[in-house]
């Protein structure tokens, strides 16, 4: 049963997530200091019973760094306001930043900026992971720049400092619009006592250099002085309440789909050669299972049409037979223009093996058609959301708004794979090229060695195509349970609608392609 | 004295005012209320056609001011005054003032009231007429155990049980103080105490033509502090033969007084021996049970008799009726009266209840949103059920109480249900010591956890419904769940999500559905429908198990709101009557530090543990508010 297998995959993913966070010993130490864990801080910050979409939970999977990259980022609701939360996990190597921490926090900043969501930083970090400083120091400066650019764009930033936030880290509260510090806990200074001693010979202690009380009463670097962590979170919520940001309202009814979300367990592909009719997926995802198909009788490898999710109107592009033909590419390009004309966000449901190859297709201009689709998706200005359901190979990944095409958010189903081509095809191509090269040089082809090589390549490509591998490298914003697709897209659409949704209106009319 | 009544002033408040108005309206009589400032929004004021304000709030300033009430009657054009019960209902001077003002007094003659007003003299009079009486007077006359009683008054105020001679002086002093405060006269006397006697009383009625009848008995043995809690008619202990004897004694008593109108002759019944206690020269609180088993409207009868009509034949007893007094009080905390807003008051009953027939009758002085103040008796309502048998009536009554939604104030509802369901009560084994033997502590809902879960789920649903954004997403949705959802109540933290727990201990319930006002749970294979209402930080849950209230803890407690440990706070608003210690004094656990008077009762504030008194912040005469720190005992 596909469903059973999918549940096993989900259980594996849960195990992977469980490996994030600090060791039992470091958690214990953290708690004995009377501190909340990073997740407890976030849970308390969020409105009771509200949703929270954690971003990049598998960041750094398969690297030398712990899964999750010692920072938790996500989108949640605080005082009725949708915000981006970025919170250090001080139980993982003291909350120090490694290159993946940096990438993950910068991604959260990007999401806040693109969608105009206030950014709340829950700060407690020992600073940079010094052995990897070369990969952090120069690009890392962007983190502080992002804070003030958010502010300049009218997007408030809030920092709640739970512990250390020193040296470069001092600029996180330093650059935030609103700062809460905790009496006796927060330490914010450019240089700690030893460095000050070295630099100037001055003897100073932590509290006088950067204690919360000093910042609240003397330096003015803190706006609010909290008595403890819970009080700090209370004050942080108070700050957000006073931002008085209006949440956008979904314009359409948000009735539940007629088909239960559990059916997605069965529908979600495990074996990517199994065909998947995206209309069945949509029946489990869109409001009232209502899907008004555009051009249903033309270019039937790609399904396009209009629907709404949690009341938000969307245009949907979904692969239905893997391969993209000329007609499908042109239908997509035309549909993307139509969505821009009506300022409608687009959702891409990827399950593609790429554009069709072969003499007939090249002669028919598959490159031109693919270019039209990639042109449209690149220059479209309505928000894009992408979910990789199954395969995402070759230029099909680009045309269907892959990572490089900046969808506002991109999520992956557990068994999805992404690569320039399928592992067997890629190994086969290498084999053919190898034979040709041997033939050209008049050498004998080492059949045994080639077979071994082909196997190795196939295995490596397979491994590197997997969702978890790619999510670990942050080529998506997270792997999701297929049953959560509607919830995730509903949340994502609310997020993108926080910024004005305006399509391309200053070019040509919609080309009929 | 037989003028037609066209407009009737009720010199009372609350449920009895509404009760009298109801009959008056049916008879086409204009209704006039008088009301204190504290009662300006009370339902009985709105029920009346006309209402006259009595400035002030305390009974002494308002409902005990006969002069103001007579003036109000004249001003409103009333031609009769009904005194209800309590207040001035047994005040001969008031009755006389009413009559002197040319108004009809709906009650016995001032002379009869006067004769029965002093309980000592009343007993002497009855003894002389041949009615059996209990020995009384001084402690020497009665022996121990004895009861100290106020000569003028009733309702349990100024009463003390004394078992030994050494306790007598303090009991006398306390009773005198209470009687003086409640009735304006501190005279008290002693009476022999029958410990396992029943309180059985006979409703009597006299007309102006010399007819005196007995309308059967009521039993009111279930009492707390000599205040009746459960009343019924007929008494399960009274045989037809005994009924006849008691009726005869009661009629003799009434005739001795030349009684006109409604009265009650109270007896203590011990086996088949009965002793005269007193005559209440008014309509009793518990009159509805007599109405239910006789089919008579006693208020109507009062009004008709006052206008000179003849009494009808005495009807046969029909079925059985039980009344309970629903109080805003906490039986488990020494009957502590409660004050505040009764946010929800819903008692299932028949709106068009006649004076007899199957079903539940509600005589209430309050409604949802009513404020229950500190100035008057905290009785909210009387709930009365009639059934063909005692068992049917008890079941109907406990069912109605169980299905009632009573929010905002602690009530004695659970206790009433437990009494009505108890084997002793159902067996008719009631005597005046019933409640002394009854366990007052347990609540009806023994396992509060399913209700606690329901409260948390309803709140979560309310959070979703009220969310300005993303409200349509599943409650507490996480793509990476790291911990369950949680709601903290004073009694424990509920965690929920896939499974449920209270303070970490699993609770085996399944959620069928949850909305802000209704949660359907499966508990041990049974579907349990819970109605949930939020009121500030309180969440009320009502189900077939009963009603519970759960106080929410703030997610973000105000860090400055900490009270020093050992602080003693006022449990309710009241007045400090006595301060027994001073700052720096060493006290033992349980030692009385000061005494508050609230709701007409004295409430000692005792040291919770041995220690030293500090921060004593009040002195006699001070008004204190609920939660106010009175003193601190430092161990």
Explain this structure.
The complex is a heterodimer of chains A (513) and B (635). Helices cover 42% and strands 18% of the residues of chain A. Chain A contains 21 helices and 16 strands. Chain A has helices at residues 2-18, 24-32, 38-45, 99-115, 133-140, 142-152, 171-175, 193-200, 206-210, 212-219, 229-241, 263-267, 278-283, 326-341, 359-363, 366-379, 394-399, 423-440, 447-465, 467-472, 485-496, and strands at residues 52-55, 71-78, 81-88, 119-125, 157-165, 178-182, 224-226, 292-294, 302-309, 312-319, 323-324, 346-352, 354-355, 384-393, 409-412, 417-419. In chain A, the strands form 3 sheets. A 7-stranded mixed sheet of chain A has the order 1-2-3-4-5-6-7, with helices on both faces. In chain A, strands 8, 9, 10, 12, 14, 15 and 16 form a 7-stranded mixed sheet that branches. In chain A, helix 18 runs antiparallel to helix 19 (447-465). The longest helix of chain A is centred in the last third of the chain and has 19 residues, at 447-465. Chain A is globular and about 80 Å long. Chain B has 635 residues and is α+β, with helices and mostly antiparallel strands. In chain B, the strands form 10 sheets. Chain B has an 8-stranded antiparallel sheet. Chain B has a 5-stranded parallel sheet with strand order 3-2-1-4-5. Chain B is globular. Classes of the chains: A alpha/beta (513), B alpha+beta (635). Chain A binds chain B through residues 17, 39-40, 43-44, 47-54, 57, 77, 80-82, 227-228, 230-231, 233-234, 237, 247-248, 250, 254, 310-311, 478, 480-481, 484, 487-488, 490-491, 494, and chain B through 459-460, 463-464, 467-470, 472-480, 482-483, 485-487, 555-557, 559.
């Amino acid at each position: 049963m596909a469903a059973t297998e999918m549940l096993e995959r989900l259980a594996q993913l849960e195990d992977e997530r469980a490996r994030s966070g600090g060791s039992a010993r470091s958690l214990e130490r953290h708690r004995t200091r009377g501190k909340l864990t990073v997740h407890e801080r976030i849970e308390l910050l969020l409105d009771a019973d509200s949703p929270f979409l954690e971003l990049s939970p598998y960041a750094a999977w398969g690297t030398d760094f712990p899964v999750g990259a010692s920072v938790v980022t996500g989108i949640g609701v605080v005082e009725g306001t949708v915000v981006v939360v970025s919170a250090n996990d001080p139980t993982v190597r003291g909350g120090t930043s490694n290159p993946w921490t940096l990438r993950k926090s910068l991604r959260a900043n990007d999401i806040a900026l693109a969608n105009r969501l206030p950014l709340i930083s829950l700060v407690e970090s020992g600073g940079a992971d010094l052995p990897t400083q070369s990969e952090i120091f120069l690009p890392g400066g962007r983190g502080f720049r992002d804070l003030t650019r958010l502010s300049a764009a009218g997007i408030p930033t809030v920092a709640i400092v739970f512990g250390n936030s020193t040296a470069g880290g001092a600029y996180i509260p330093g650059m935030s619009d609103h700062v809460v510090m905790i009496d006796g806990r927060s330490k914010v200074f450019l240089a700690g006592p030893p460095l000050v001693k070295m630099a100037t010979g001055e003897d100073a202690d932590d509290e006088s250099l950067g204690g919360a009380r000093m910042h609240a009463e003397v330096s003015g670097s803190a706006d609010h002085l909290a008595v403890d962590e819970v009080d700090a979170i209370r004050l942080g919520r108070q700050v957000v309440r006073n931002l008085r940001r209006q949440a956008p309202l979904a314009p359409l009814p948000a009735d539940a789909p007629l088909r239960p979300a559990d059916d997605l367990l069965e529908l979600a592909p495990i074996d990517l050669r199994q065909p998947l009719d995206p209309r069945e997926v949509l029946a489990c995802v869109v409001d009232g299972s209502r899907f008004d198909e555009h051009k249903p009788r033309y270019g039937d490898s790609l399904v396009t049409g209009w629907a709404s999710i949690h009341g938000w109107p969307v245009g949907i592009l979904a692969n239905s037979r893997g391969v993209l033909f000329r007609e499908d590419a042109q239908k997509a390009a035309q549909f993307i223009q139509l969505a821009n004309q009506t300022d409608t966000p687009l959702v891409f449901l990827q399950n593609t093996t790429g554009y069709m190859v072969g003499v007939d297709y090249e002669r028919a201009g598959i490159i031109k058609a693919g270019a039209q689709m990639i042109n449209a998706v690149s220059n479209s200005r309505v928000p894009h959301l992408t979910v990789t359901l199954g395969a995402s190979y070759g230029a099909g990944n680009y045309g269907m708004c892959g990572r490089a095409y900046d969808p506002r958010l991109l999520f992956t189903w557990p068994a999805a794979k992404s690569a320039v081509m399928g592992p067997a095809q890629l190994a086969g191509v290498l084999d053919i090229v190898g034979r040709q090269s041997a033939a050209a040089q008049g050498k004998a082809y080492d059949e045994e060695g080639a077979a071994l090589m082909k196997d190795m390549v196939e295995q490596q490509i397979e491994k590197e195509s997997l969702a978890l591998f790619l999510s670990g490298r942050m080529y998506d914003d997270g792997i999701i349970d297929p049953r959560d697709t509607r919830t995730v897209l509903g949340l994502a659409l609310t997020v993108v609608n926080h910024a004005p949704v305006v399509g391309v209106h200053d070019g040509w009319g919609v080309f009929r392609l | 004295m037989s003028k037609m009544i066209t407009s009737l002033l009720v010199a009372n408040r609350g449920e009895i005012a509404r009760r009298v108005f109801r009959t008056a309206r049916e008879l086409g009589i204009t209704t006039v209320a008088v009301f204190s400032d504290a009662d300006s929004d009370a339902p009985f004021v709105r029920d009346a056609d006309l209402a006259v304000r009595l400035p002030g709030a305390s009974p002494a300033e308002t409902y005990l001011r006969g002069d103001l009430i007579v003036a109000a009657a004249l001003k409103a054009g009333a031609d009769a005054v009904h005194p209800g019960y309590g207040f001035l209902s047994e005040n001969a001077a008031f009755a006389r003032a009413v009559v002197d003002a040319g108004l009809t007094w709906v009650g016995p003659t001032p002379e009869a009231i006067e004769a029965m007003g002093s309980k000592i003299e009343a007993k002497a009079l009855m003894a002389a007429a041949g009615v059996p009486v209990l020995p009384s007077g001084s402690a020497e006359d009665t022996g121990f155990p004895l009861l100290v009683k106020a000569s003028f008054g009733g309702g349990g105020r100024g009463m003390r049980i004394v078992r030994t001679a050494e306790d007598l002086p303090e009991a006398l002093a306390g009773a005198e103080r209470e009687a003086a405060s409640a009735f304006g006269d501190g005279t008290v006397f002693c009476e022999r105490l029958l410990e396992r006697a029943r309180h059985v009383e006979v409703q009597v009625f006299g007309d102006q033509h010399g007819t005196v009848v007995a309308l059967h008995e009521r039993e009111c043995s279930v009492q707390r502090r000599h205040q009746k809690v459960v009343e019924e008619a007929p008494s399960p202990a009274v045989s037809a033969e005994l009924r006849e004897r008691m009726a005869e004694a009661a009629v003799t008593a009434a005739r001795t007084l030349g009684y006109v109108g409604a009265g009650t002759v109270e007896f203590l019944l011990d086996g088949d021996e009965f002793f005269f206690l007193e005559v209440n020269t008014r309509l009793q609180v518990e009159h509805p049970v007599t109405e239910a088993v006789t089919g008579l409207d006693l208020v109507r009868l009062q009004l008709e008799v006052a206008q000179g009509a003849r009494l009808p034949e005495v009807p046969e007893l029909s079925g059985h009726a039980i009344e309970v007094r629903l109080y805003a009080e906490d039986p488990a905390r020494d009957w502590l009266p409660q004050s505040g807003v009764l946010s929800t008051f819903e008692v299932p009953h028949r709106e068009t209840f006649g004076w007899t027939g199957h079903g539940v009758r509600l005589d209430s002085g309050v409604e949802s949103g009513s404020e229950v103040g500190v100035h008057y008796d905290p009785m909210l309502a009387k709930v009365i059920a009639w059934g063909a048998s005692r068992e049917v009536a008890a079941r109907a009554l406990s069912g109605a109480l169980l299905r009632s939604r009573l929010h905002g104030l602690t009530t004695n509802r659970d206790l009433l249900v437990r009494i009505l369901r108890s084997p002793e009560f159902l067996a008719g084994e009631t005597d005046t010591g019933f409640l002394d033997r009854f366990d007052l502590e347990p609540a009806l809902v023994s396992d509060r956890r399913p209700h606690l879960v329901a409260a948390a789920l309803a709140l979560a649903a309310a959070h979703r419904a009220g969310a300005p954004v993303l409200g349509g997403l599943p409650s507490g949705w996480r793509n990476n769940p790291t911990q369950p959802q949680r709601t903290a109540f004073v009694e424990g933290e509920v965690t929920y999500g896939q499974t449920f727990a209270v303070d970490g201990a699993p609770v085996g319930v399944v959620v069928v559905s949850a909305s802000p006002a209704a949660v359907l749970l499966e508990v041990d294979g049974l579907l349990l429908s819970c109605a949930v209402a939020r009121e500030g930080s309180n969440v009320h849950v009502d189900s077939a198990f009963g009603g519970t209230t759960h106080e929410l803890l703030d997610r973000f407690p105000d860090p400055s709101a900490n009270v020093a440990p050992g602080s003693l706070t006022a449990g309710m608003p009241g007045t400090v009557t006595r301060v027994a210690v001073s700052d720096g004094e060493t006290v033992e656990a349980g030692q009385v530090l000061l005494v508050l008077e609230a709701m007409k009762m004295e409430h000692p504030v005792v040291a919770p543990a041995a220690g030293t008194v500090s921060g004593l912040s009040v002195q006699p005469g001070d008004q204190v508010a609920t939660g106010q720190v009175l003193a601190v005992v430092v161990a």
